[in-house]
Amino acid sequence: MTPPEKSKSKQLRMVKSATDDGKVEVTAPAQKPRGGNDSACPRCFGTGLEMVPGEGARRCDCQMSDHRERLFQSARIPARYQHCTLANYDAGNSESMWIAKREAQVVLDDFLVIDGRGLLLIGPVGVGKTHLAVAILRELIDRYQITGLFSQFGALLRRIQDSYNPISQTSELTVLQPVFDADVLVLDELGASKPTDWVRDTMMQIINARYNDKRLTIFTTNYSDKRKNDADTIESLEDRIGVPLRSRLYEMCRTVEIEGEDYRKRSVAQNV
């Protein structure tokens, strides 16, 4: 009994063509990608890699948007700040806020040549420090497809402390590794937690790792380097994080002092 004949749609039809020297070549017609997905990208056929004549394989453009979206998700930017850009940062009439905006733009424009030197944004609440930091992070991810991470200082320390719990499913290294490895790190509210030896040692571990690897870090803090007068009892940034760490930040970052009216109060006043 002869085997059943395959349907014509499944037969591999060979095409004969004559070359200039009279030889006959046998070629197969182009095949559709496996799975029969007619909506697959016509450039990479759903593989994610596009073949470019003379260059070889490269990531297909259809993958860029998906890859970028994954980078934004892994950056853990809080929902409240996901809209932040330099374009929508309102500097108002504050000269120092305009200077801070300019410094943020310099970081964006010179990212590839600044050798990991970041910013330390210092100022009272409501002047847009976190807005500027997130704007830098978002724009660098968008431009260069790099890995980024947003981390609030106090929350990071709590996660590290939680990892010491015997019933915890994570470890200190699991918590810290993304902080060490991110191409760009935003560390928000530096100095917010009570300064203990453990806090300072943990911060020095993070800062040293990123300093040695020349990874860009953007810090924000409400604690100033300056005292209003000798009678001022408000703690300085150096008081909160210690002399060695403050010294290291001078090397790692350009310090930008921001002054201005709390934008939250300004917004309320405008809406009254």
Cα-based radius of gyration, to the nearest Å: 28 Å
Query: Which regions contain 5 or more consecutive residues with pLDDT less than 50?
Result: 4-19, 24-37
CATH topology: Rossmann fold
Provide the succession of SSEs: EEEEHHEHEHHEHEHHEH
What is the count of β-strands?
A: 9
Give the strand line-up of the largest sheet: 6-7-8-5-9
The CATH homologous superfamily name equals P-loop containing nucleotide triphosphate hydrolases
Major sheet characteristics: 5 strands, parallel
Provide mean pLDDT, rounded: 83
Instruction: Please indicate the count of domains.
Output: 1
Give the second-level CATH assignment, the architecture. 3-Layer(aba) Sandwich
Per CATH, the class reads Alpha Beta
Strand proportion, as a percent range, falls in 15-25%
Shape: globular
Total of DSSP H or I helical runs spanning 4+ residues: 9
Q: Which structural class fits the helix and strand makeup?
A: alpha/beta
The end-to-end distance, rounded to whole angstroms, is 92 Å
Instruction: Indicate the percent of residues in helices.
Output: 25-40%
